From TrEMBL:
Stretch forming the signal peptide: 1-19
Pfam families per the UniProt record, alphabetical: Alph_Pro_TM
Residues that span the membrane, as ranges: 227-251
Keyword line: Membrane, Signal, Transmembrane, Transmembrane helix
Protein known as: TIGR02186 family protein
Domain of life: Bacteria
Length: 253
C-alpha cells in the first residue's frame, strides 16, 4: 500500500498543474508551387481542451510559429576600400530558417518568458542557431543582426503580435501569409499555450511545400543532371534570342 501511494504521488507530481491541451487544425497541409504561384495564406485554428474550469489568474495566451527548411549560410560584411565596396569579413551561420513567422495574442515578451523562449527557441533571435560563431569574428552578433534585418525587410522573417484571435480563452485562429519565393520542403507549424509566460502545452504539425509541373521538372533536372540543364538553358536562350531578332526584323519591314 505504501508503494502504491508513493507511485500515485509521483504520478500526480508530474502531471501538469492545469489540464489544458491544444486541438489544432490547418486550412492546408500541402502547398503546390506552380508557374502562377504568388504566395499562399494558411489558416491556423483550434481550441483548448480542458478537464476542469478555466483557472483563475493570468489569462491564457497563444503563440503560433511557422518555420521553413533550415540551411547553413554565410553572411558577408562589405567595407569601402580604395573607393570600391568589397567583402571584408564573413561569418557562417550553422542553421537559419528560410522562412519564419510568429503570431501571438499579445506582445511576445509579455506572453513568453525568457526561460521558455530559450527552451523552445520561439523568438527570431533564438531560432537562428549560431553555435561556434563567436570564434569566427569579434563582432559576430552584428552579422546575426544583419541577417535578421535583411530577412525582415524581405518579409521572410515576420513577427505579428496581437494577430491571434482568442475567444473565451478556448477558440483561437490566425492567418499566416506564405510569400511567393518559398523554399521547397517541410514547414513546421508549432502552437504554444502559455499562461503567465510559462508554456502549458504545445503541438506541432507539418505543411508540405512542393514544386509541381514544369517547375518541379526543371528543379529536379538542375539538381540531378546539371550538365543537361545547362545545355537546355543555353538552347532556350539561343532560340529566344533568334525569335526576338526575327520579330524585330518583321517590325522594321
Amino acid at each position: 500500500m505504501t508503494i502504491l501511494r508513493a507511485l500515485l504521488a509521483l504520478l500526480l507530481s508530474v502531471l501538469p498543474a492545469t489540464a489544458e491541451q491544444i486541438v489544432l487544425g490547418l486550412s492546408e497541409y500541402r502547398v503546390s508551387i506552380t508557374a502562377d504561384f504568388d504566395g499562399s495564406e494558411i489558416l491556423v485554428y483550434g481550441a483548448v481542451k480542458r478537464q476542469e474550469p478555466i483557472p483563475a489568474g493570468p489569462p491564457l495566451q497563444v503563440v503560433v510559429t511557422v518555420e521553413g527548411p533550415s540551411t547553413p549560410l554565410t553572411v558577408w560584411r562589405k567595407d569601402r576600400r580604395w573607393g570600391i565596396w568589397v567583402n571584408s569579413a564573413a561569418v557562417t551561420i550553422d542553421r537559419a530558417p528560410s522562412f519564419y513567422a510568429i503570431a501571438t495574442t499579445g506582445p511576445l515578451r509579455e506572453v513568453l518568458s525568457e526561460t521558455e523562449d530559450l527552451r523552445h527557441r520561439i523568438s527570431i533571435t533564438r531560432v537562428i542557431r549560431a553555435v561556434g560563431i563567436a570564434a569566427q569574428a569579434d563582432d559576430s552578433p552584428a552579422f546575426v543582426n544583419a541577417l535578421q534585418r535583411i530577412r525582415i525587410q524581405e518579409k521572410r522573417f515576420v513577427l505579428k503580435e496581437r494577430s491571434v484571435a482568442l475567444s473565451d480563452q478556448t477558440l483561437f485562429r490566425t492567418d499566416i501569409e506564405l510569400p511567393a519565393a518559398l523554399t521547397e520542403g517541410d514547414y513546421r507549424v508549432r502552437v504554444f499555450l502559455t499562461r503567465d509566460g510559462r508554456v502549458l502545452d504545445k503541438l506541432e504539425r507539418s505543411i508540405f511545400v512542393r514544386k509541381e509541373g514544369l517547375e518541379r521538372f526543371f528543379f529536379r533536372l538542375a539538381h540531378d543532371q546539371p550538365l543537361v540543364y545547362g545545355l537546355l538553358s543555353l538552347f532556350v536562350a539561343v532560340v529566344a534570342g533568334w525569335l526576338a531578332s526575327a520579330a524585330f526584323r518583321l517590325l522594321r519591314n
